[in-house]
Each structure stands twice: as structure tokens, then as C-alpha cells.
């Protein structure tokens, strides 16, 4: 038996015991993953046509970009999840 299988069963039992509704969802939904709908677009635009001679140069630029993001960038991404989740629920996952 895979070790996490037991944990998954315990989790399902706990959810059932407390009457929590388990919502079905696709394994991966880009419109519900903040990294996909909020992070990668701006990062791709920032990197644009930049070329890096070494992996360290790329890592340095990524660190610089993340370090200079305003806290509101993350707040907006997280806050937009609510409307995205609600839309998904209203459309029954479609």
C-alpha cells in the first residue's frame, strides 16, 4: 500500500464525519491556479526577449523580479480566486 493512501482515507472519513461537502474538480485547472492566471503572464512579459548566458544569470533576474514585486501584486492574485472559484461552481466545473 502506498503510504499516503491511508492518509487520504483518513481525510475522507474526517470530511464525512463533519459533513463537509467535497466538490469535484479537475486534476489541474489553469484558470484556478494563481501561478497560471496571475504569475506566469507578467513573468513572461518581464523576461520578454531577455537572453541569459548562464543559469545563475537567469536565477538572479528571477530573484530580482520577485524581490521587487509589490505586495498588492500577490493580494490581487489571491483575491481574484474567490470570483474564479464561484464562476467554476456556477458553471458546474465547465
What do these coordinates show?
- This protein is mainly α and about 90 residues long.
- The chain has four helices and no strands.
- The longest helix is centred in the last third of the chain and has 20 residues.
- It starts with a helix and ends with a helix.
- The model has no long low-confidence stretch (mean pLDDT about 80).
- This is Transposase.
- One of its GO terms (molecular function) is nucleic acid binding.
- InterPro entries: RNaseH_sf, Transposase-MT_Hybrid.
The major pleated sheet works out as: none
Order of helices and strands: HHHH
Q: How many strand units?
A: 0
In helices, the fraction of residues equals 55-70%
Termini separation (Å)?
Answer: 34 Å
Apparent shape: elongated
Mean pLDDT: 82
Assembly state (oligomeric): single chain
Structural class by sheet pairing and helices: mainly alpha
Percent in strands: under 5%
Helices, by number, come to: 4
Which residues form runs of ≥5 with pLDDT under 50?
Answer: none
Gyration radius (Cα, Å) is: 19 Å
GO molecular function: nucleic acid binding
InterPro entries: RNaseH_sf (IPR036397), Transposase-MT_Hybrid (IPR052709)
Organism: Plakobranchus ocellatus
Protein name: Transposase
Record the SSE blueprint.
Blueprint: H1 3-17, H2 34-47, H3 55-67, H4 71-90
Summarize the structure.
The chain is mainly alpha-helical and 94 residues long. Helix content is 66%, strand content 0%.
Characteristic key phrases:
4 helices, elongated, mainly alpha, 94 residues
Amino acid at each position: 500500500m502506498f503510504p499516503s493512501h491511508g492518509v487520504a482515507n483518513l481525510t475522507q472519513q474526517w470530511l464525512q464525519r463533519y459533513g463537509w461537502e467535497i466538490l469535484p474538480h479537475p486534476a489541474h485547472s489553469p484558470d484556478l491556479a494563481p501561478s497560471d492566471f496571475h504569475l506566469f503572464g507578467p513573468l513572461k512579459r518581464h523576461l520578454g526577449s531577455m537572453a541569459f548566458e548562464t543559469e545563475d544569470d537567469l536565477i538572479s533576474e528571477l530573484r530580482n523580479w520577485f524581490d521587487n514585486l509589490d505586495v498588492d501584486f500577490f493580494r490581487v492574485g489571491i483575491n481574484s480566486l474567490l470570483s474564479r472559484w464561484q464562476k467554476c461552481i456556477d458553471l458546474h466545473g465547465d
